[in-house]
Prior knowledge:
By secondary structure, the chain is mainly alpha-helical. It has helices at residues 15-23, 32-45, 50-54, 57-63, 69-73, 77-84, 93-111, 116-123, 141-152, 160-169; strands at residues 129-130, 173-174. Helices cover 52% and strands 2% of the residues. The chain has a two-stranded parallel sheet with strand order 1-2.
Amino acid sequence: xxxxxxxxxxxxxxxxxxxxxxxxxxxxxxxxxxxxxxxxxxxxxxxxxxxxxxxxxxxxxxxxxxxxxxxxxxxxxxxxxxxxxxxxxxxxxxxxxxxxxxxxxxxxxxxxxxxxxxxxxxxxxxxxxxxxxxxxxxxxxxxxxxxxxxxxxxxxxxxxxxxxxxxxxxxxxxxxxxxxxxxxxx
Length: 186
């Protein structure tokens, strides 16, 4: 039996991408640790496709201690070298080092009583924004402001385009295509 659901064009033809689209993309996430994981993965996507990252997501989870910020913040030079040799992830030193720094930035927020999820959602307006379903921008004024705020908290690999992709992935904005079956569900 053929699956005839109308989906966003970016996921069609790859079963893993379709499953991600159908179950995860655009669904509002408020859990701070999950939001942080997705921000890290979006940062690794810079210059690559989401397909590349998604197909290595389990490798990333294994390599980065299930994205436990406490563990990642303790990584040292030897761990960076081990990650540079790990074929299950994208072996980009700047992105690996940014991930360690981003874990430390996340923990600095937590240690001062600031919840990452609450903070991020407050910058995004507190509730999901509805895209028009026809035109998907690479960045918006909101993603530029979010990027600037993340950078002010010492996060790296969080430019406005990465911030917008993150906002889409975690449901801060619903950019499912106008004819996608998920548009009205998220």
